């Protein structure tokens, strides 16, 4: 499952036997908490006002002080904020915190934080008809994309994309697209909003504060002098009986629902959301039956040539209380299952066994019963142990959607490494030696695991093939990357290949002009943008030499190279030396060196095993060091 989230962990994974799980849905205005005592059983549900607390730690302490003293080991929070790494700075509140610091403060083994609409999206597959109110026609198409949005303090947007074994959540900040008026009244509201902001996003209007702005804008348009009202009072004034309803409040709500209908339609056509559009948040569910008869559905279908397209897409209001609890519960449960070895890939293998041929089923049985053996053995040994041919092993891997054995093993290795958190922790001046040591090792381990999952084996094959027939090999690098180039020169020289390394721009520029067809240049660069290196690469290619670039795959250097071995790890090069990038670059040098040190394999899968084993050797060394 791919989500926009960050997590930190410590200690051993456990299920509900280790105690209740703490779940929360923290918005800009309210924070909702519960203890999940067993799957789907939410106890001690409480709502706290965020304004009453100085930070998230004070908020959590306040909730935990009101519940039974049972120790909580695992927690998952939905947060109304983009989540990107350990540091979180809320956009709608003056709160900033480190996820790792919060985990330590409360002694949690696991703290998982996800975007609130990622959590809401993940709740949808588990909702029942009683949890929803359908507005208008249309029927959900099974295994289709689902859109989800909801106005509250802001405007959250997400989606669910179907896969072979569930859904992938779409991390989105779609509420910040430009607002698009559809008539003169909405254009007048936009002009009014422009007086306050030069850029008016949809969230500025389709939200609680947006409803308040619409009210003031309509009063200005209607030449009425009114005092500003909070969104709750506007809704209260509009939802009274017909005789008692306030005309301006009613017009505001009508305009709000129409805008929401147009925006929902835009989301539906963007995603192709034939699974339906689901509306949550803190505003629409409070409208009740009014929303069903509002301008929402009419505006949703008012799409010109695409009216019939949108008429097929159903729209629902999520009416169940606290739906985000179901979403964070599902995300946390899946995460903890993965840590205890019950990986989704293993589940997939079990599920498709009936669809496999008898020979492929023998491979599946071997994988399920001896996963580490399959991970560590070459294709010939796997075929022997399963009593099948080597092509059968490849067919088994392809039946799961992988390119071959190497691709399968890379993903399978990742799925079996659930005890190692993939995360980045910022080192701080206040850290003890123990803490900073653990963080440096953690960051390196997680970077290697990510690197292993993204490794392009085909590019490695191409690079090794070029080097096997090279007349000579030259390494070009500058700055911090020179250590990597020197390491490569020392290794490759032992293969009886004429090898040189240049770290001076003037020298490698001259050397590049003396190259010939059949020569290979390996260029190492953290940025892939240095003009001196790019000029030398142009000269090398003009001379007929091939270039292997160890660099980010979208860099100018990558585009000029014959083969790019991508290292896409991002580091602050302006402030720090590129420590982790250097380690990943050295790993690539080692993988190539091991590939060169053996004869060309008869089976491609066997060569892929060599590359995977070399990478795993380094990651396992670091993992064992971390565990000790």
TrEMBL record:
Pfam families: Glucokinase, HTH_6, SIS. Transmembrane segments: none annotated. Belongs to the bacterial glucokinase family. This is Glucokinase. Keywords: ATP-binding, Cytoplasm, DNA-binding, Glycolysis, Kinase, Multifunctional enzyme, Nucleotide-binding, Transcription, Transcription regulation, Transferase. It comes from Undibacterium pigrum. Its EC number is 2.7.1.2. GO terms for molecular function: ATP binding; D-glucose binding; DNA binding; DNA-binding transcription factor activity; glucokinase activity. Gene3D superfamilies: 3.30.420.40, 3.40.367.20, Glucose-6-phosphate isomerase like protein, domain 1, Winged helix-like DNA-binding domain superfamily/Winged helix DNA-binding domain. One of its GO terms (biological process) is glycolytic process. The gene is glk. It is found in: Cytoplasm. It catalyses: D-glucose + ATP = D-glucose 6-phosphate + ADP + H(+). One of its GO terms (cellular component) is cytosol. It comes from the Bacteria. It is an enzyme of class 2 (transferase). Residues 463-602 form the SIS domain.
